[in-house]
Design brief:
A: alpha/beta; 2 domains; 7% strand; elongated; B: mainly alpha; 4 helices; disordered C terminus
Amino acid sequence: MPTWVQLVFLACGVCFILALKGLSGPKTARNGNLLGAAGAVVACAVPFFWGDLNLKHVPLILAAILVGTVGGVYGARTVQMTQMPQMVALFNGVGGGAAALVALLELQENGEYFDWFPLAATAFTIVVGSVSFAGSVVTFAKLQELMTSRPVVFPGLPVAFGGSFVAAVVLSVMLVNDPQMWTGIVLGLLGLLIGMLLVLPVGGADVPIVISLLNAFTGLTVAAGGYVLSNTVLLIAGTLVGASGTFLTLLMANAMGRSVANILFGALKGGSTLGGGEVSDRPVKSAGPEDIAILLGYAERVIMVPGYGLAVAQAQHTLRELVDVLIARGTHVDYAIHPVAGRMPGHMNVLLAEAQVPYEQLIEMDDINSEFKHTDVVLVVGANDVVNPAARTTPSAPIYGMPILNADEAKQVVFLKRSMRPGFAGIENELLFDPKTTLLFGDAKDTLSKLLAAVKAL
Amino acid sequence: MSEPIVWLTIFILSIFVGIEVISKVSSTLHTPLMSGANAIHGIILLGAILVTGSTDNNLALVVGLIAIVLAAVNMVGGFMVTDRMLQMFVRKPVKKTAATDGSGETK
């Protein structure tokens, strides 16, 4: 490898480090991302200028890059902000799939010259890349509601999972001893099966954690692929993503008060996040939009708690209008953002930013939790689990230990809900039955429009 | 230092760097960070190009081209979707200053 190529690759590796560093701060995030993109483009351009490499099939390669680029741009441009998590899952999956295919090709071309360690790395890349691909596809199907978002468990699933895992290990050992193409292909198929079996039992609410985990898997796959191809930039980029992705997964799981093992295998033990989902028939207090409008209109301090239901109903804009009207009336209004509001950590910030909600009005949980005591009305729109006191009081609840918004400390709580169906975690919310709680039933967008009209008429 | 040790060194150091650089991330940025990291592993496109460009086997060529398409989707789509998300964080304050001072000065 010529020195200039190695130096360019080193520079690209540094770009990726700075990109991740930039992405972890709000002010630097956008530039960080652009720097990462620049590094990736430069690295991918290198083979075309690397004379000694004698790259073949250049027109076909360029055409394939063009097709992929068009596909990626189309997906990235057209995806709705609410569907962002499944788009990320899909992008991650195709990356994993690509890594597995690259490893298979390398096995076919150079497998017979490989030592045992590169062969083991090849086997790892094929299996984990396929796991990432199949897992991401199932994740996508779950979030896109192409299939049920409940955990899918069938008798024998643990046996099938364990069996395929052991088979993959055995075949990997076989591949290292005797690098045959068919072994690699079977390993890929086993990886696909493992990926499906891994994600099927995960409930909808936990899927974002799985996306993050699969993202880390793909990173490690790319790192192993980099070792197989003796390419430093792949090794550095892949390892960075693998390490930061694993760490991010743990951060997210912590924010939900769960362990990663419990998320992945909870359903197998029966301790699934998605419980019965039964509708309770206990009495609740409900009211019409006009009553709630009076409550809001004459309150001094109001906090909005937005949840995924708000985004599903596409009601962010209406909520912002309502808040604007209330602020114009002299009410102090903020949005309380739970770290896992929406479908992914930080997702709600993206959704509200899209609706042009000023950044300063979005207050994070730790900063706003002490404010609830002094608040007249909390309006919970399409959220449930993030204000469920069971997280504090009921050790048997699946969300026990998850930090929540202290909405129950406010003087009045209003829930905008479609029905009495429990939230994603599938557990009943005691706060709904509290005497200071009022429910306003209906589609979030519809109800908020009525509420807006009623507040304007005050 | 033997070659495998050099690789191992890069690997281990990258792990620490990867954890260290994101250790102070606020939960607001978890989603864009995940998406950005996702785009970075799209660098497998480079691997796909190198492997495809060195094969003489027609079947391998087809498989390689598929890998290139998939990797390009990952890389290009990943960076673009991350940028779209981050644009939303930045846009609002920018608009606000433009609306209040009206002079169009960004400094």
